[in-house]
Design a protein that fits this description.
Length: 115
């Protein structure tokens, strides 16, 4: 059993910054990939950023240059630093952790970008 708990969401003005955190707990063996997805009302869930255990990263084109994903393997935690936020970034953000043949999801944390 693995549980993912997200934190750091909230309301921020356009151009502002937020940092999301996701800590995994439970039966942790080896997390290969961790990532952040987001889903806005009426839209499909989309990948925002992902990071492999070794540190390689992938970003959605819409967030490249603005968001940075990182992880602390010792603490089984992944972060998403979000800068220069836009209204289009408003969504529910979900943490994801991938193991061999299995993945887990967090409960989601709301990010709202509005003036």
């Amino acid at each position: 059993q693995v549980q993912l708990v997200e934190s750091g969401g909230g309301l921020v003005q356009p151009g502002g910054s937020l940092t999301l955190s996701c800590a995994a707990s439970g039966t942790i063996l080896r997390i290969y990939n961790m990532g952040w997805y987001r889903q806005a009302p009426g839209k499909q869930r989309e990948l925002v950023a992902a990071i492999a255990r070794g540190g390689s990263t992938n970003y959605a084109d819409s967030v490249k240059g603005r968001f940075t994903i990182s992880r602390d393997n010792a603490k089984n935690t992944v972060f998403l630093q979000m800068n220069s936020l836009k209204s289009e970034d408003t969504a529910e953000y979900y943490c994801n952790a991938q193991f061999i043949g299995k993945e887990y999801w967090g409960q989601g944390t709301q990010v709202t970008v509005s003036s």
